[in-house]
C-alpha cells in the first residue's frame, strides 16, 4: 500500500502520543513517527530527538525562515513544527507517517497532502472526567498549565467534526486497531453518525469541569 500521512489530533491528554507509540511498537515496518521541533522545555525523561527536537526560539525562527517546516503552530505559548525532512524520509522508506499535532497544524498538513495522500483522525477521550484524570495522572503540567490545556481542548473539540474520522480512546488496544483499520481502508470508512452528539456532550462536560477547578 502507498504510504500516507496520518494526522492524529486530540485535546492534550486524550492519548495520541500513546496511540502513535503503540502503532509503531506493534507494526514497526508499517508506521513511523515524525519527530517535531518545539520551543517547549523537555519534560522529565524526554530526550532530544526522540519525543521532540528541543530548540530555542531563535533556532525555531531560523528553521521557519529556511522553509524547513511542513507546518507549524503556536500552542500554549510555545512553538511546534513538523519538519518536512522527517515526513519525506519516512514516506521514502515506505512507512505511514504519524503526526501527533494540534488542529491548526492538522489543517495545514491537509492542504499539503490532500486526501487520499493523508488521513486525519481525531481522538476523543471517553469523558471529560477521564481526560482530566489522564492529564493529572501524567504529572507533566502545573495546575495552571493544565487549566490552559483544558481551555484549548474545548476549542479543539469544536473542530473535531471537520476530521474524516473520530475515534474514542477508551481501551487502548481497541483504539490502536481502529486507527490501523482506518489507515488501511481510508477511502471507504463511513462517518460515525453518533460522533457529533458525543463531541457536544464532551464540550458541555469539559466546560463544567473548567468552571469547577477555576
Ligand atoms: P496526548 O499525547 O494526547 O497529550 P498521552 O498519550 O500523553 O496524551 O496520554 C495522556 C495520559 O493518558 C498518559 O498518562 C497515558 O498513559 C494515558 N492514556 C493514554 N491512552 C490511554 C487509554 N486508552 N487508557 C488509559 N490511559 C491512557
Ligand atoms: P505537548 O506539549 O503536550 O507535547 O504538545 C502540545 C500540543 O502540540 C499537542 O496537541 C501536540 O499534538 C501538538 N504538537 C506536537 N508537535 C506538533 C507539531 O509539530 N505541529 C503542531 N502543529 N502541533 C504539534
CATH topology of the domain at 5-34 and 97-213: the name is Rossmann fold
Residue share in helix: 40-55%
Q: Taking all residues together, what is the mean pLDDT?
A: 93
Count of extended strands: 9
The description of the largest β-sheet is: 5 strands, parallel
User: Which percent band covers the strand fraction?
Assistant: 15-25%
CATH-assigned homologous superfamily of the domain at 5-34 and 97-213: P-loop containing nucleotide triphosphate hydrolases
How does the helix and strand content classify structurally? alpha/beta
What does this structure look like?
The protein has a domain at 5-34 and 97-213: 3-Layer(aba) Sandwich (Rossmann fold), CATH 3.40.50. Helices cover 45% and strands 20% of the residues. It has eight helices and nine strands. It has helices spanning 16-26, 57-65, 84-92, 103-112, 128-138, 143-157, 172-184, 195-213, and strands spanning 5-9, 31-33, 36-38, 52-54, 69-75, 78-83, 96-100, 118-124, 165-168. A five-stranded parallel sheet has the order 2-7-1-8-9, with helices on both faces. The protein has a four-stranded mixed sheet with strand order 4-3-6-5. Helix 6 runs antiparallel to helix 8. The longest helix is centred in the C-terminal third of the chain and has 19 residues, at 195-213. The termini are far apart. Bound molecules: adenosine-5'-diphosphate and guanosine-5'-monophosphate.
